[in-house]
């Protein structure tokens, strides 16, 4: 058995949960926050058999888009009077960051 942990953008989370249900995969959604952008994202935990990993990857891949997001870098000078204003830079976010982990034991009581 495997546990897939997939971090996706909030904008894609409804579509992904709908597609997972349609394909008969069970999942749990957690509200999460990205360490870099400090913006909300959604983390899916999906428990599956080993031979279903590729099928779940396909669902995730089809449901999540890559998007550009503007970030304003924080400089050590921020807050002082003679500091310059850093220009926002564009970063690419997503479609999904996915970890596939082995499950040692699974119980469902
Ligand atoms: P954030 O940490 O908010 O990162 C958002 C996007 O900012 C990242 O997109 C990446 O393009 C950029 N970024 C992140 N750290 C950076 C850095 N140190 N320097 C420059 N750019 C940086 P994604 O790579 O698609 O990641 C989307 C979200 O997935 C992340 O949100 C984070 O919540 C999660 N994630 C990504 N890699 C991870 C990892 N190795 N472990 C745990 N969570 C991860």
From TrEMBL:
<dbReference type="InterPro" id="IPR011322">
    <property type="entry name" value="N-reg_PII-like_a/b"/>
</dbReference>
<dbReference type="Pfam" id="PF06153">
    <property type="entry name" value="CdAMP_rec"/>
</dbReference>
<protein>
    <recommendedName>
        <fullName>Transcriptional regulator</fullName>
    </recommendedName>
</protein>
<dbReference type="InterPro" id="IPR015867">
    <property type="entry name" value="N-reg_PII/ATP_PRibTrfase_C"/>
</dbReference>
<dbReference type="InterPro" id="IPR010375">
    <property type="entry name" value="CdAMP_rec"/>
</dbReference>
